[in-house]
């Protein structure tokens, strides 16, 4: 819609658009041009409406849409009910631009996936073989916003069974979420391409499934993904993979090159360089210790069992996120100074 023409009133599907309609109909409203600008993008209608509502009245109407989504769902129980807390529903709504119908469909598909894949029931001993080379693990440092950092080293791939590779990745994502501090819901990814080549490259099918799981079943869990110093030949592989990546996720993927000044500054804006390891241009030293990491994961398995109420003696969490009920983990993979 051309912002220079008069903005027609929205045809509200519910009472949620009433305030926005009032402002659109009031030609003397000082916020009229701002509303027209935001109204241009129809696909993001709900998100922009709430920004306007919150800015003008100082209130928070997100809660109303969260309630609308919850009401639209079939009755939930057990771990599905625990999973669908308000923060979870907000993430699914955000991933679908606050469209309740699309968010409902996405969430229902995730609940179905979780009922069959059973990510909450995966334990480290089931996937430990996947981690023997340190191809993926949670770091012993956080980014500047306190997010858990997941390190992936595709050049150290050591298995060929796709099912178990995905099981290992999902386990690490669940573990990273479990260990988030209270104020955070997202995790950061660092992908080190040292040793990567077309001969040990992740198959397209595996890359596509990784993207599918992250986008569709862990919406808004990715804060940023740094692809650090990928070789030029990776560009051909990326041209295929990015076809499966939605635009919102694509914006979070950053290619970083150590000799590029802008890349270095970008890394500095996200990480304390004293903590960031040398593999990513920092000053920290970290050597993956599989035995030590396995001990830590075994401890976290106990914590996960308590959170998901597999331990019958654990009190109910009343819908709080893992970050709100889980004790803080100081170090997930203790470094070995080299």
From TrEMBL:
SUPFAM superfamilies: CRAL/TRIO domain (SSF52087), CRAL/TRIO N-terminal domain (SSF46938). Pfam families: CRAL_TRIO, CRAL_TRIO_N. InterPro entries: CRAL-TRIO_dom (IPR001251), CRAL-TRIO_dom_sf (IPR036865), CRAL/TRIO_N_dom (IPR011074), CRAL/TRIO_N_dom_sf (IPR036273), PI_Transfer_CRAL-TRIO (IPR052578). Coiled coil: none annotated. Residues 125-288 form the CRAL-TRIO domain. It comes from the Eukaryota. One of its GO terms (molecular function) is phosphatidylinositol transfer activity. This is CRAL-TRIO domain-containing protein. It comes from Anisodus tanguticus.
């Amino acid at each position: 819609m051309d912002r220079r023409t008069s903005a027609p009133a929205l045809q509200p599907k519910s009472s949620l658009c009433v305030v926005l309609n009032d402002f659109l109909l009031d030609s003397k409203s000082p916020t009229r041009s701002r509303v027209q600008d935001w109204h241009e993008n129809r696909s993001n209608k709900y998100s922009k409406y709430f920004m306007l509502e919150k800015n003008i009245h100082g209130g928070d109407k997100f809660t109303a849409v969260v309630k609308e989504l919850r009401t639209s769902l079939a009755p939930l129980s057990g771990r599905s009910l625990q999973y669908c807390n308000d923060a979870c529903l907000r993430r699914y709504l955000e991933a679908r631009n606050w469209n309740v119908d699309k968010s409902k469909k996405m969430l229902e598909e995730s609940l179905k996936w979780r009922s069959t894949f059973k990510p909450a029931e995966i334990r480290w001993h089931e996937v430990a073989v996947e981690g023997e080379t340190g191809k993926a693990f949670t770091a012993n440092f956080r980014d500047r916003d306190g997010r858990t950092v997941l390190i992936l080293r595709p050049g150290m791939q050591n298995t060929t069974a796709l099912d178990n590779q995905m099981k290992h990745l999902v386990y690490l994502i669940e573990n990273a979420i479990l260990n988030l501090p209270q104020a955070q819901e997202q995790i950061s990814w660092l992908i080190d391409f040292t040793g990567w080549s077309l001969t040990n490259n992740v198959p397209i099918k595996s890359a596509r499934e990784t993207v599918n799981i992250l986008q569709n079943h862990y919406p808004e869990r990715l804060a940023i993904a740094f692809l650090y110093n990928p070789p030029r030949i990776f560009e051909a592989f990326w041209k295929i993979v990015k076809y499966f990546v939605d635009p919102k996720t694509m914006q979070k993927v950053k290619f970083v090159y150590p000799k590029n000044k802008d890349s270095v500054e970008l890394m500095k804006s996200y990480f304390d360089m004293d903590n960031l390891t040398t593999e990513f241009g920092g000053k920290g030293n970290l050597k993956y210790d599989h035995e030590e990491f396995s001990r830590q994961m075994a401890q976290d398995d106990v914590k996960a069992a308590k959170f998901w109420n597999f331990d019958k003696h654990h009190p109910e969490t009343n819908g709080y996120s893992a970050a709100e009920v889980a004790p803080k983990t100081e170090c997930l993979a203790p470094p070995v100074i080299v």
